[in-house]
Amino acid sequence: MVMRPSKKVGIVGWGAYVPMYRIKTREIARVWGKDPRRYEEMLLIEEKAVAGPDEDTATIAIEAAQNAIMRAQIEPSEIGAVFVGTESKPYAVKPTATIVAEAVGATPNTLAADFEFACKAGTENLQCVIGLVGSGMIKYGMSIGADVAQSAPGDELEFAAAAGGAAFIIGETNHNVAARIEASYSFVTDTPDFWRREGQPYPKHGEGFTGEPAYFRHVLSAARALMEELSITPRDIDYVVFHMPNGKFPLKAARILGFSREQILPGLVVRKIGNTYSASSLLGLVSVLEVSKPGDNILLVSYGSGAGSDAFLITVEDAIEEKKDLAPRIVDYIERKRYVDYAIYAKWRGKILIPRRSGNSHAPKHWREIPQRYKLMGSQCEGCGKIYFPPRPVCPNCRSTEMVYVPLPRRGRVVNYTVIRQPPLEFKYHAPYVVAIVELENGVRITSQLTDVSPEDVRIGMEVEAVIRKLGEDGVDGIIFYGFKFRPALHNGNSHIS
Ligand code: ZN
Fold first, then answer.
1. Domain holding 225: CATH number?
2. Within its chain, how far is the Cα of 342 from the centroid?
């Protein structure tokens, strides 16, 4: 049955995020003694995106969400729901959505939840946001798909399992939407093609069983049913996006349904970033939105193992053009890359084990510091006007106690730095890393780690911007500390987020 909300809704803002590190298919093949040519041809994946040592599903979701807010040009407090779809939650028990909602400023008056359904957890939460906005329960809702996909070393999945995220803010169509969501359709069955049992680090899959009865049956059925119910054919569609476990499957699905290569190639981001799981089809949609014109029709079909597909028909509106450049585009992230070899990749993804201690419950202290760690809040003296970071209760300059919290600019320049090569045990996966003094645009100086940069590439005067990353964790079982670090500034980066 086709699903349509009673009020018309659309995409008010969208955002992508792809980590800067890549590993080539042929590097993975080299380590496991496989024929690199064969794997490149079989999968149609040249390289995949790898999360850095300070990135996880939460940090990836946060940057995608910030980009979506910049394009939506709304107050984060107007977002009535924040949903994160993922199969790689940082915590087994504790929502990812609250971390994201807090970091983007949507808390506390919002609904927040994590969704799970292998690679379609993003599109199913999009349907829920459509329902909430389309019934008038909330004004805006945010749907996110993000993953740092797991795969056992040497498994076939390792060639594709990648990291990335996409976020969408949905609102009624009278709120300057970039695209209308016409309708959706879902097709699900109990199909055990891929799973991960509780406590197991890596998923398993039914060899030779993932194609026909799983991916193709669900994707093709959902696509056909939606087109049939809306009385449209591939000729009425400008772009088609399918879930991308590799490059071959979506190309074959397109061929079977009668779509041309011109209709599918603009969204086929898997070749350059791999399978980003819950973000895969959504990043394909972002890629297509960023090259689309008003009036274009887009067919989006996700796939999640277990199994199911959600299909959507989306029509691009006039506001698309003015929104494209309000935040970094997906091509900015795809082109921003640095290659890592298998050893660095294995270290960062925790595939090389080092001894780790148990946690001490630093949760209360971390919780008190969340405003300054997530939102870069300083304190300003009402007496003399000086701004301090970290925030201070008393002004050291004029002794005033009239201090107010103020958001600090997110951009600045490196004024000095040092390279840490002998870190404490908990930072071993990150070494070497750089700690810098950053002078923000308003002159306030902050000591912070730099990220996404090699020590040899750091320069005094380098322009940097704040991003939220994992600062560390309280042992193997304690809480994860998130907070800002600075990275080399991106074109259209987050200077105006506060
Ligand atoms: Zn003062």
1. 3.40.47.10
2. 23
| Distance between Cα 386 and ligand 1 center (Å) | 6
Distance in Å, CA 439 to ligand 1 centroid = 20
321 lies in the same domain as 417: no
One domain for residues 199 and 340: yes
> Could you tell me the distance, in angstroms and rounded to a whole number, from the CA of residue 382 to the centre of ligand 1?
7
Distance 104 CA to ligand 1 centre (A): 30
Q: Out of 119, 128, 381, 395, which one is annotated catalytic?
A: 119
* Residues 150 and 262 occupy one common structural domain: yes
Q: Is 87 a catalytic residue?
A: yes
Q: Is 333 domain-assigned?
A: yes
Helix-then-strand count for the chain, H and E: 15, 22
Kindly state whether residue 3 falls inside one of the protein's structural domains.
no
What is the rounded (10 degree) CA torsion for 13, 20, 278, 71?
A: 0
Q: Are residues 341 and 367 in the same domain?
A: no
Give the C-alpha separation, 81 to 102, whole Å: 12
Q: Domain range spanning residue 472? A: 363-488
Kindly give the distance from the C-alpha atom of residue 462 to the centroid of ligand 1, in angstroms, as a whole number. 30
Length of the chain: 498
Residues 104 and 207 in one domain: yes
Tell me if 354 is assigned to some domain. Answer: no
Q: Ligand 1 centroid vs 354 CA: distance in angstroms?
A: 47
Q: The tokens of 342 are what? A: 């298998």
Question: How close is the Cα of 397 to the center of ligand 1, in Å?
Answer: 5
- Together in a domain, 423 and 325: no
State how far the Cα of 184 lies from the Cα of 300, in Å rounded to an integer: 9
Residue 114 forms part of a structural domain: yes
119 flagged as catalytic: yes
Residues 435 and 333 in one domain: no
Domain count for the chain? 2
C-alpha distance from residue 14 to each of 34, 83, 296, 408 (Å): 39, 14, 17, 25
47, 87, 102, 290: which one is catalytic?
87
Distance between CA atoms of 483 and 376, rounded to whole angstroms?
A: 9
Reading the chain (498 residues) residue by residue, the pLDDT tens digits are 899 999 999 999 999 999 999 999 999 999 999 999 999 999 999 999 999 999 999 999 999 999 999 999 999 999 999 999 999 999 999 999 999 999 999 999 999 999 999 999 999 999 999 999 999 999 999 999 999 999 999 999 999 999 999 999 999 999 899 999 999 999 999 998 889 998 888 988 887 677 889 999 999 999 999 999 999 999 999 999 999 999 999 999 999 999 999 999 999 999 999 999 999 999 999 999 999 999 999 999 999 999 999 999 999 999 999 999 999 999 999 999 999 999 999 999 988 887 777 777 678 888 888 877 888 899 999 999 999 998 999 999 999 999 999 999 999 999 999 999 998 877 888 889 999 999 999 999 999 999 999 999 999 999 999 999 999 888 888 899 999 999 999 977 765 554
Determine the distance separating the centroid of ligand 1 and the alpha carbon of 387, expressed in angstroms: 8
Q: Are residues 14 and 116 in the same domain?
A: yes
